[in-house]
Design brief:
With 323 residues, the chain is α/β, with parallel strands linked by helices. Helix content is 36%, strand content 20%. Helix 7 links the parallel strand 6 and strand 7.
Length: 323
């Protein structure tokens, strides 16, 4: 049955709550309201106010409480309402959550999942449309994952909650209502693995989240010009699945990386650096980034021009083949 990404997340969380009595949800309006995007709709009614907890408005308190719960043996899943609201909790995330296993010499794990709707495309203002993934990917001790489809949403939320590592779970809000088939009994890829979502042999296009459907459209358009584009969905932003990316670029000789976040010090720069370090003499062209601009997120009337789209990705492909 075709299922929206938001519903697949809801189904995944429901299954986890039913299977594990130590799983809890905590966040602003996650209970009675069911979350701003209704991802947790109905879960408080089904599992009660002690398992699905409406918190006060305070992100540092939400994450700090989750850390304490994890120390007591629970598996808390936090919701941050919007990407730009996570910054009050950065001290808790970076100096406590990410560091505690190392600090305790492996004796204490903090299996906390922090769900964050992120990215643009919904006509919202800047602190409702940001892409802060590089902050978390830069922080040792955190896993960072991002689903691009309903199947991946269901699989990744279950894998994230089952992980002993803290996980920042980025949800592309622009695609919450994108539908796809979900097999709840399928064997998922490992938490840190990338996925080739379209095979090709002329150029590798790497992306994640909301831009994966865009990249597939780009591959269709490029095929009309006789160019075979392989599309890789990262799924995991930290760690990055180097092996899958390198195997693809070694075959194609060309690389384009696309993401909504600003260009400077983004995931695109990191991926291109790794590929060119390993495959410099095998590449027919340098890696090319297609990203948001190095400006604050614009007013909604300008976001279509700010976000990477089909035309900008096709232009990058043309530039790669011009070498």
């Amino acid at each position: 049955m075709s299922t929206a990404i938001a519903r697949a997340l809801n189904d995944g969380l429901r299954s986890l709550l039913a299977e594990h009595e130590k799983v809890m949800l905590i966040g602003e309006d996650v209970g009675r309201l069911g979350g701003v995007f209704r991802v947790t709709d109905g879960l408080q009614q089904e599992f009660g106010e002690m398992r699905v907890v409406d918190s006060p408005l305070g992100e540092a308190g939400i994450v700090g409480s989750a850390i304490g719960l994890a120390m007591a043996g629970y598996r808390p899943v936090c919701e941050i309402q919007f990407d730009g609201f996570v910054f009050p909790a950065m001290n808790q995330i970076i100096t406590q959550l990410a560091k505690y296993r190392h600090r305790s010499e492996g004796m204490v794990s903090l299996p906390v999942v922090i769900r964050i709707p992120f990215g643009g495309g919904i006509g919202a203002i800047e602190h409702h449309s940001e892409s802060p993934e590089a902050y978390f990917a830069h922080t040792a001790g955190l896993r960072v994952v991002c689903p691009s489809s309903a199947q991946e949403a269901f699989d990744l939320i279950r894998l994230a909650v089952q992980s002993e590592d803290p996980v920042v779970f980025l949800e592309p809000k622009h695609n919450y209502w994108l539908k796809g088939d979900v097999d709840q009994h399928a064997t998922p890829l490992p938490l840190g693995a990338a996925k080739v979502v379209r095979p090709g042999h002329d150029l590798t296009l790497v992306t994640y989240g909301a831009l994966v459907p865009t990249a597939l459209t780009v591959a269709d358009e490029a095929a009309l010009d006789g160019r075979s584009v392989e599309v890789i969905d990262l799924r995991s932003l930290s760690p990055i699945d180097d092996a899958t990316i390198l195997a693809s670029v070694e075959r194609t000789g060309r690389l384009v990386v696309a993401h909504e976040a600003s260009s400077t010090a983004g995931l695109g720069a990191e991926i291109i650096a790794r590929v060119q370090d390993a495959l410099f003499y095998s590449m027919a062209a340098p890696g090319i980034r297609v990203t948001g601009y190095d400006t604050p997120y614009p007013a909604s009337r300008l976001e279509r021009d700010w976000l990477p789209g089909v035309d900008r990705m096709l232009d990058a492909i043309d530039r790669s083949f011009a070498y």
